[in-house]
Each structure stands twice: as structure tokens, then as C-alpha cells.
Amino acid sequence: MLTYPPTTMHFRTGDSPPTGRVRGSTARAARTAVTVALTAVLAFALGTPTASAHSSLVSSSPEDGATVEEQPGTVELVFNENVQDQPDFTQMAVLDADENEFHTADPVVDGNRVRQDVSELPDGDYTISYRIVSADGHPVSGTIEFTMATGMSGDVANGDEAETASEQASGDGDDSAAAIWSGIVIAVLAGLALIVGRSRRRLRESSEDGPTSDDERDR
Fold this sequence. Notes:
The chain has 2 helices and 8 strands. By secondary structure, it is α+β, with helices and mostly antiparallel strands. The longest helix is centred in the last third of the chain and has 60 residues. One of its GO terms (cellular component) is plasma membrane.
């Protein structure tokens, strides 16, 4: 059997390497670049929900900057996700330009909606101030501004204060009438007492003069 010595290939400096090796290196580099790109995209995709998980206001009634011509009765805020319904987590206030309060009840949470009843609002500028806690425990706060233009004017802080002022005015009127009638009764009684006193004095004087006249006749 014939034995052949191993064949050795020699390349001079400047010679090009075999084409197979070049293609293998290029493929590995391409796979590495694709892997890095996919890893970056995946990391960004996983990180995006975490950054945007907080609640945000998507609409309100009245709308921010709106001019309202009818009494709303209730104000409402709508968020992009549910709001935590826990005591003291949700705070709302409806205030006029002088910071008088017009809300008549605590806010009510219904999923991603928060409502609050308000009294009648005289014409003027109002602000809805709110603070809620999102599903992930992050607090969210802000303000909504609107203007009432219903033709209703008034300088009362709310309906309860107006009713209280009316009751106080009625009570003051009753007290004044009672004082007048009391004065009239006292004046009448004083006049009667004066008349009775004069009558008694005249009777005494008449009785004293009577016997003296009879004695003189007997003489």
C-alpha cells in the first residue's frame, strides 16, 4: 500500500484567505448584531409598560376651560385606568375664585371614574382640584378650570349658607315684631295704671270733703 505524505498549504503575506472562512466570520458578525438589536428592543418593550403604568386624566365634565350654561349638579373625572377606592385616597374640591367650597358630598369612585355632587353654582370662575391614587399606588393630582354663565348671580358660598342666612333674617324679623308688641302692651298697661291711680285719688278727696260739709249743716 502506498503512503502519501500530508499535504501542507502555505500562504504568502498578502494572499487572500479561503472564501469559506470569510463567509463564516461575516455570518457570525451578522448573528451577533441581530442578537444585540433584538435584546435592546425587548428591553425597551418590557420597560415601556412600567413607565406608563401610572393613571392619567383622559376627560372631565365640565371640560377644562369650558363655559357652562346649565347647572352641572355633579362633576366627573375619567382616568385611563381604575382608581384605588380607599378612604382618604381620593380627594376632590370645587372652589370659586374666592376659594369658597361648593361640593356637597365626598367623591365617589366607580372604576376609572370619580364623581362629586355640587350645589348650585353662581356665575363665575371655578376650579376642580383633585388627587387620586392609581392602581400601582402612584398619586396623581391636578386641576380643572371652567366658567359658569347661567345668568345666576349671587355672593353666597353655597346653598347651606344661603339657607342659614335666610333663617337668621327670619328670626331677626320675628324678634323685632315681638319687641314692638311688648312695648305696646307695656305702654297700655302704664296708661291704665295712671288712670286707675287718678280715679282712686279723686275718690279719696271726695270722701274726705263729704263729712265736713254735713257737720257744717248740723251746726
